[in-house]
Amino acid sequence: MTDPREAVERLREAYNRHDLVALARSFGERAVLVSPDGIAEDRDEIASYYGVFMEAFPDTIVTPQTVGVYHDTLAAEFIITGTHEGPLLVAGGEIVPATGRPIAVRACSLSTVEDGLIASHRLYYDQLELGVQLGGDLRFAGPP
């Protein structure tokens, strides 16, 4: 069994370098990413998902806080920081224009690793927390 820390660390390093090619290679060919924004179902869709966020926050980085491993699954708590410098596509299809505001969003993920690659990556963060930091327009945080 492969230690899931290796695959998830490759993902974090690629994300922090904004290297979408290396990021995609952290995932298996049929990997699935589930997030508050939707589902991405293969390497290309997953890289596209992260690319949209990196376009909106070109200086974004992930800083790990807590990591736990159980067999082939890694649970991670981390902070996503960056500056909102580009358009952000949010759930529901709305685009939030750049605000120039900094963000520090607490998040966590569960990643299941098979054969050294991430097979399933479930990302959780509070859309309300992000919305407030972008200026308080809470409409895009979800339906009432």
UniProtKB/TrEMBL annotation:
Family annotation (InterPro entries): Cyclase_SnoaL-like (IPR009959), NTF2-like_dom_sf (IPR032710), SnoaL-like (IPR037401)
GO BP: any one term: polyketide metabolic process
Domain SnoaL-like, chain residue ranges per copy: 8-121
SUPFAM superfamilies reported in the protein's UniProt record: NTF2-like (SSF54427)
Coiled-coil zones: none
Protein name, entry field: SnoaL-like domain-containing protein
Source organism: Sphaerisporangium rufum
